[in-house]
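pls ignore typos typing on phone
adenosine-5'-triphosphate + seq
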Amino acid sequence: MINWAEEWSSFYKQFVTLGGYKRLFDGLIATVEIAVFGLAIGIIIGILIAIVAVMPRYKLLPKILDKICKVYVAIFRGTPMVVQLLVGHYLLLPLLGVNVSGVFEAVIIFGLNSGAYVSEIMRSGIQSVDAGQLEAGRALGLSFWSAMGKIVIPQSIKNILPTLGNEFISLIKETSVVSFIAITDLTKALKLIGDATYHYFMPYIMLALIYLVIVLLITWGIKVMERRLARSDRK
Amino acid sequence: MIENNILDVQNEKEVVVKVRGLCKSFDSLQVLKGIDIDVYKGDVVAIIGPSGCGKSTFLRCLNCLEDPTSGNIFFEGEDLADMKVDINVHRQKMGMVFQNFNLFNNLTVLENITLAPVLIAKKNIAKTKRKNFFIKIGNLFRKNKKPLIKIEQTLKEVKENAKQKALDLLAKIGLEEKANVYPSTLSGGQKQRIAIVRAFAMDPKVMLFDEPTSALDPEMVGEVLDLMKELAEGGMTMLVVTHEMGFAKEVANRVIFIDDGVIKEENNPKEFFGNPQDERLKDFLAKVLI
Ligand SMILES: Nc1ncnc2c1ncn2[C@@H]1O[C@H](COP(=O)(O)OP(=O)(O)OP(=O)(O)O)[C@@H](O)[C@H]1O
Ligand SMILES: [Mg+2]
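k done
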C-alpha cells in the first residue's frame, strides 16, 4: 500500500524545501529546447530535401542529390532514436573529436532525425496538391519556382502544418530518451528527485502530468491553426 | 532543311504555329507518330479522335507541357521543341485551357487572372534594372555613354493595369461580382469561363483548349461554348480538342481527325462531316453523331 502522507511529505521536502523544483525547471527547459531547436533544424533539412524531391529531374545533379537524400531518410527513419543518440554520442563525437554540450548534441541529433520525417511530411504535402495547379501556372509562362512558390506551396501548407504539429508532439515525447547520454531533461530531473528519497510516486505522477499538459497545449495550438487555415480557404 | 517562313506565300496568311514531324513517346508507347500542321492566324481548328489517340498529348506538346520526342514546333520565330529555347516566354503567348479548369485554389478570381501578368512584369523589370546597373558601371569607363534601357511601366502601373483589365474582362462575362471570391465557391461553368479569361488576359497569339466542356454539367456547357465562340469571332487563333461536334461544325473553320498518332483527315467542317473519306473517321462519326 502507498502511504500517501509520507509520499507527499517526502516529495514536498525534496521538491520545495531542498529546491528540487529548480532541477525540474532546468529539465523542462532542456526538454523544450531539444524539441524546439530539433524541430527547427528538422524543418530546415526537411525543406531542403523536399525541394530536391520535387525538382524536375532532367539534369544529373538533382538525381544525385535525390539519391543522397533517400539514403539519409532511410537511415534516420530506419533506426530507433535511442540508437541514433548512442551512435552519435559514443561513436561519431569521439571520432570527430569535438566537444559540445549535451543539449547541443541532442539538438543536432534530434534535428537530423526530425529532418527525415519532416521531409516526408513536406513531400507528401506538396504532392497532395493537384498536379493541374502547377501545370496551369507553367502554362501561363511562370517559371517552375514561381509556380511552386505562389501556387503549390501555399496550398500545401494547409496539409503540412497540422502534421508538423504532430511531429512536434512525438519529438517532445521522444526527448525523454536523452538521459541515455547523460542529459538532465524533464524525465531525468524527476527521476533524480525520486532517487533522492526512494519515493517515486509523486515525481512520476507529476512527470506524466507535465508531458500531458505540454502535449494538450500543442494539440490545442494545432486545432486553432487548422481552424484559421480552413477559414482563409473560404471567403 | 525545314523552312520557317512566317508568311505563307500561297495563302498570304500569317502562320501562327507550324508543326513538323511531331513525335511523342512515353517509354515504349508511341503516341504521336509525326504530326504536321500549319495553323494560320484566326484559324479555329477542332481536333477530334477516339479516346487515347493522343489529342491531349498533341496540345500539351505544343506548349511543351510534354517535351516532344522529336519534330519541330515553330512559334514566334523559334522552335519550341529546341530545349534551349526559353519556353516560359513563349508559353505566355500560348494560352491553355484545361478540362478541369485548374483555377488556383489559393487565390481569388481576380488574383487568378492577374498573378501571371504581374509576376512576369516584375521579373522583367528586375531584369532591366540589372541590365541598367551594368550599363551604368560600364558607362563609368566609356566615352560615349550607353543609354539606359527605359522601363515602360512601373510595377505599380503594371499591377493597376492588370487589375483593371481583369475587372473589364470579368464584367464582359458577367462575373465582376465574383472578383474577390475563391474558386471553391464557383460553379463549373463559371470556373471554366474564368480560366478562359485568365488565359486570354495574357494577350495570347493562340489558345489551346483541351476538352473545355467535358467536366461540366450539361446545363453549363452552353455558356462556355458561347464564350469560346465569341473569342473565335474576335479573331483569336484557337486549337480545340472537343467532343462537341456542334461546336466543330459551327465555329471551327478546320476540323482534324487524329488517329494512330497522325492526322488522318483534315477538312472544312462541311466536307469533314458531310463527306468523310477515311474509314476510321466514318466509323468514328457514325458513333458520335447519333
Ligand atoms: N504522362 C504519360 N505517361 C504515360 N503515358 C501517357 C501519358 N500521358 C498520356 N499517356 C498515354 O498516351 C496516350 C494518349 O493519351 P492522351 O491523353 O493524349 O489521349 P486523348 O486523345 O487526349 O484521350 P481522351 O479523349 O481520353 O482525353 C494514352 O494511351 C495515354 O495512356
Ligand atoms: Mg485528353
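Chain A has a mean pLDDT of 90. Residues B 55-56, 210-211 surround magnesium ion (ligand 2) (CB under 6 Å). more later
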